[in-house]
Specification:
This protein is mostly helical. Helices cover about 70% and strands about 0% of the residues. It is elongated, with a radius of gyration of 19 Å. The N and C termini lie far apart (about 40 Å).
Amino acid sequence: MAHKQIIAAYHILKNKEVYKEPIKQIEAINQKKKQRDIQKSVAQLMNLGFSVRLTPTA
């Protein structure tokens, strides 16, 4: 565990970044992946000749 903390501290200091909680980082990565997956799916449907309109669900 200490090794991971040292690595994190090194990167924070090296890149002059603000520390981000790992959970928030994971959520951000998941959200980006979700958006990428949506874009890929829409592009595939459009390539197959479909018109796509996305409406969010509740």
